[in-house]
Each structure stands twice: as C-alpha cells, then as structure tokens.
Design a protein that fits this description.
The protein is an alpha+beta fold. Helix content is about 10%, strand content about 15%. The radius of gyration is 20 Å and the shape is globular. The termini are far apart.
Amino acid sequence: MTARVGTLLCALLLVGSGCGASEPAGGDGGGADAGVDDAAVVVDDGGDLLPDAAGDGGLPCRASGVMGVCVDISQCTGTRTPGLCPGPASIQCCTPRSGDGGVSTCDPAAMPLPTSGRSEAAGQGGCPAGMVRITSFCIDKYEASLTLVSGGEWSPYWNPGTRAVRAVSRAGAVPQGYINGRQAADACAAAGKRLCTDTEWLRACRGPTSTTYPYGNTRMPGVCNDARAQHPAVEYFGTSDPSVFSMIDHPCLNQLPDSLDPAGANAGCITAEGALDMMGNLHEWTADPNGTFRGGFYVDTYRNGNGCLYATTAHDTGHWDYSTGFRCCASVP
C-alpha cells in the first residue's frame, strides 16, 4: 500500500486527527477529472501506483465503460469482468452491478446540475442574502453550493479545479462536496464573504448555551443526516477491499441513494439561530490555515468528536474528497 492510499484510508476509517497530515486526494482540480482506461495502471500526481503495483489487486479499472477496482473475486459483490487486471485469474475488475439500488444509473462522466433555478433568500438580522445572524457575525443558513463567476451553475459532484466559482447558500440545493479548503475560501471571497473561524463555526453550531448538537445535548439519531449504514465507496464499487478508499474522489459517491441530502432537507437539524445541517451531511472547512473541517458527514458524526465538536485536522487545505464541503461567514454590515 502506498503512503497516499494509507493516508486516505486513515481519513475514511475516520480516525481523524490521529493520522497526521495527508497529501491532497486528487490535488487541486485533479481527482475526479482523471479518466481510467480498460486495464490501465493509473499513476497519481505523486508518482505512486494506485494502490498496488504487485498485481495482486487494488488497481482502478474500467469494464464496459463503468469504473471499478481490481480485486479478488471473493471480495466482489458487484459484477466481475476477467482479463482487465494484472495478476492471477482470480483478480478481476469489480464494477457496480447493474440495477443495484440505482447505482448503475450514475454516469461518472456526466456533470449533473441539480440546483439550477434556485436562489438565495433574503438575509436575516441585517445579514447578506442566504445568511443568519449570530451575535456579531453572519453565517450561511445552508451548506454552500457553487455558481460560476462567469455565469451558470457548477456541478456539486465535481471539484471546480481552477475555475472561478462563487459560494451560494440556497434551500433545497445539493451542497458542494469534492472541494478543498483553498477553493472554499476563494468561493466565499467571490461572494463577498469568508470562511468561518473555528470560534465562529463552533458558536454558530452550539448556540448561545453551548450544546453538543445543533438541536441540544442529547443525540437524536436520524434528526441530522449523520449515520449512513454503509460506506458509499464500498457500496458503489461492490467490495470492501481497502483499495476502494483510494477513489473517494469519484463523482458517483454523493449521487447514491441515501447519501448526500439537499440543503435544509433535515428540518430538525437546526441551530438555535436557524443554521441547518451543521452536523452531518458534509464536513465543513473552516479558516484554519493548517486545515480543519468540522461537523462530521453523512457516514459519521462521533468518531472525531460528537456533533458540533467533531473536527478533522488530518489534512491540509489542499485535500478534497466526496465528503468535504463548506459554508461561509461574514461580519455584520
């Protein structure tokens, strides 16, 4: 296993700040933009084979245009295609099985725009559009989605790369995952806002009485989008082989059923001052220059701290994967 895959496994197994800093998952504008040809050995931007050069499984593959992973047939619950992977005959290309939970309906080359036509509501308490007031600052009511500065929407399932994008806080929008901390900061700045400091983010999530969860001090499973039963990479690729965690930039992960929710879909997951989804759904980048994202995501909101106290510090601001999102803050006008 390469060092890069090891750090990604660390992040996906949710041991968080105990892992140390990682190399960006896909880099700035990389990751999901990279194609994989049939039987190809993919080299990442650090020059490492992903994730196993020994021919014993774990390499990305593509069968009939569907992305998969080379694993032993005993580890694959999806469709197995022989002849596309190096190594023994038992190592085959494992791809999502057609018809399983709608997985096969996701085209990894498509860039859906599910948020088109939605707009920001008026700000509250003298705050800019899409924001609510928290004492002396404002925070986005919803996790951010993106529009292009030049006009039009950006797909929430793709990293924006070097494109100029603007953060927008909209009810019912699919929030932007697949974004690194630097891109998130730039998107806030383009909207006349900024990433929240850790102090601001915690105050907004915990409310004036410093609760553990947005809604109080007692965990209420299912109130927030915080406890998906199966990891999306395991479901999508049809195997629990550790190699799937090297492909957590895949655009179909957040398009699986029961994965990422539209902003505000969980009405009970609301703070005292009216911000939604600060626990679960997506990790949210803060302004920490060393790299911090908070609140957990739809698979987990307890391993790195409960609810509002959840914080991952294992990655620098160049990291991104399917679970990383953000929202913006602003000073009171």
